[in-house]
Amino acid sequence: AKGISDFDYKEITEASKRLIGLGPGLTPAADDFLLGILASLYYVGYYFGNRLENLKKIAGFIIYDLPERTTFISEIMLGNGMKARFSEPIRDLMLAVIHNTSVQDKCVNLLSIGGTSGSDCAAGIVFGGELMARVKILK
Question: Which Pfam family is one of this chain's hits (predicted)?
């Protein structure tokens, strides 16, 4: 979080290196959490007026040096997230959040993904959303 709020590329990369691939599952728990952070980075960050090219730069440092550090499926998932490509449940929830519409059904849909993937991603969304709403740094 400090790396993002300070726009410190090295800190962002070092923090994410320690997380990528951590945890059980076809998509490790930390990867799902990072995906949620990426979703908030793009949706909430852009909502607060941050420049898209700066958000992409941050995303690139979060998902730096990805190959062979996690599962194949997770590698694809995080690579897509780095490019702001998210699954329908994530996209629907993020759109509901930024448009201030009901999120209950969207949350249920996200939480139903995998054993813990949906809840891990939701935790990342909350963490990333709070961070982006608080720092508003990339304008």
Answer: AllH
Domains: count for the chain: 1
Long-range residue pairs from 46-49, CB within 8 A, at least 24 positions apart, any chain: 47/98, 48/132, 48/133, 48/136, 49/136, 49/139
The answer, yes or no, to whether residue 107 has pLDDT greater than 70, is yes
136, pLDDT greater than 60: no
Say whether 75 sits in a helix, a strand or coil.
Answer: helix
Q: What is the pLDDT of residues 20-50, one digit of tens each?
A: 999 988 999 999 999 999 999 999 988 888 8
Give the structural domain span for 112: 2-135
Residue type (1 letter), 64: Y
